Amino acid sequence: MTVPAVLRAPGVDVEWVTAAPVVPAAVRTDVAGFLGIAQRGPAHTPVRITSWSLFQSVFGGYDQSGWLAFAVNGFFANGGNACWVVRVLDPATASAATAVLPTVGGAAALTATATSDGTWANGARLTTVDLGGGTFWLSVDSPAAQEVWAGLSLDPTNPAYFALVVNDPVRGSAVINLAPPAVGGPATVGSGTVDLSGGADGLATLQLENYAPSSGATQGLATLGAVDEVGLVAIPDAVRLSAGDLTSLYNALLVDCAACRRFALLDQPSPACSPQQARNWAITLQASSTAAAFGCLGYPWILAQDPFGSAGDVLPVPASGSLAGVYARTDLTTGVYKAPANATVVGARDVAWPVDPATHAWLNAGSVNVITARPGRGIRLMGARTLDSAEAGTWRYVNIRRLVSMIELSLLAALSWLVFEPNSPATQAEVEREVRAFLLTLWEAGALDGAQASDAMSVQCDSSTTTAADEAAGRLICLIGVQPPVPAEFVTVRIALSEAGVQVTGEQGRTALPGPTVLAATGVPSAQ
User: In sequence order, which residues have a C-beta less than 8 Å from that of residue 369 and are 6 or more positions away?
Assistant: First the structure.
């Protein structure tokens, strides 16, 4: 129908327009997840943190018991802008500090409890003044915060009721919560001073189970499962575990990252690791994990400013937090397709173990990413290899593994509308169109190699990829080929629609095809 440019006659007019193509959006890859030891804050609960100052307000500052604060500070210093933090402890032995507020004439008393487990609140001083008429004044004096709460009421119907004001999760106290007496009738608050005590960190008994629970408990890694935007994971305090537990934890982390299409940044067990020990550690991780391509190993530890020492003092810290920031910076400024190498490690004063060029080459060949001092160019990360043990494997490079993971997750999110749609030629054509449009945006951004779009990608979704048997089983198959930036090989991603939903998988088999080497899809998820 042809419609005049200017509508003149009164009434209803119909205009046919061409709808803009729907292009799936790429998921974020720069958001990190950190697990470790903190001074205070909620335990085994992911908290989204967007700055170093916010981390300090929630979890406290540097702590001599752990490396988490160093990792998060290094992340933001190197260009990261968002992360999720999980404080890890042993719930069986951790406890919150408490105190009973002064009362009048033996009447029931209020109990003050620290807002989180740990020794951080021990010694916090609470001073109350009875103002009469069921109101009181409260001051809180602790290293975490100094607070004054005036005109608090003991009447639950009063807007100034102590539980509503002090316990408010946003505007309330950062140090304590107040609870009425369980028994004993109406409470009173007298004038006086008490100190919180009895808080315990739960670190003496901290173990592998608290980081990677096998019992189904919602602790450690298990808490990050529901946080979809996490693309990088580091556990800087893992190095405090025994050698055997550290290997088990890293293996669990790699398997978890493979399942969620995330990427793990692993540390050396100690700053004293020699180059030989570093390479041996890489071999151990490669041998113990079936998902080694979903992680990398940095070497050595870096020397950072010592917040506990004098001006100019340095101490060795695990590098994973700072390297996560380097990865995030590269993702944000260029894209996940760029190898995060030849990049400055901001905040590093030096390295714990200098590496000469020959040793550097030897470590690089052993899947160890070296951090080294470059004269006039600062401390730099000079490696971007995964722990994939295959010297010429498809997943040898960090940027290739992470790029393909991003494509898989992006398509998984974009094609969720497919579930229960008719498995018809029209649906197959729509899938092919959406996937092709998404890959075209990646190619135009430089994320895929090829002089022409046809050189960079291939998409096929029709009767040749979805057979009659697939249709009978409720599956729709789309075969995708992408050419990541050199030195990547041609990688194939397989999309499968079944009764269980949309599944996107990357296969590691190979087959010889005309042109570039293609990563062959060898299996299709079965209908559940």
Answer: 296, 297, 298, 299, 323, 341, 381, 382, 383, 384, 385, 398
Residue ranges of E strands in 19-67: 32-36, 47-49
For the chain, the structural domain boundaries read 32-90+203-381, 98-195, 416-520
In eight-state DSSP terms, residue 65 is T
Judge contact between 421 and 499, C-beta under 8 A: no
Distance of alpha carbon 425 from alpha carbon 13, whole angstroms: 33
Among 130, 142, 123, which residue's Cα sits nearest to residue 103? Answer: 130
Residue reference for tokens 């079965």: 526
Could you report the per-residue pLDDT of 249-260, keeping only the tens digit for each? Answer: 999 999 999 999
Question: What is residue 21's predicted lDDT score, i.e. its pLDDT?
Answer: 52
CATH class as words, domain 32-90+203-381? alpha beta
The closest of 283, 208, 225, 241 to 45, measured between CA atoms, is 225
String of DSSP letters for 68-137:
HHHHHHHHHHTT---EEEEE---TTT-B--EEEPP-STT-B--EEEESSSSGGGTT-EEEEEEEETTEEE
CATH of domain 98-195: 2.60.40
- Scanning the structure block, which residue is given the tokens 């890890």? 88
The CA distance from 310 to 43, in Å, is 32
- Cα 129 vs. chain centroid, distance in angstroms? 45
Distance CA 451, CA 438 (A): 18
Determine the average pLDDT of the residues in 300-304. Answer: 98
The pLDDT, as a whole number, for residue 6 is 54
Between CA 203 and CA 210 the distance in angstroms is 10
Helix (H, G, I), strand (E, B) or coil at 138: strand
DSSP state of 295: E
- Residue 342's nearest CA partner among 381, 384, 400, 296 is 381
Record the tokens describing residue 360, joined without a space. Answer: 């550097």
Query: Among 493, 512, 374, 379, which residue's Cα sits nearest to residue 442?
Result: 493
Extract the tokens encoding 426: 């029209």
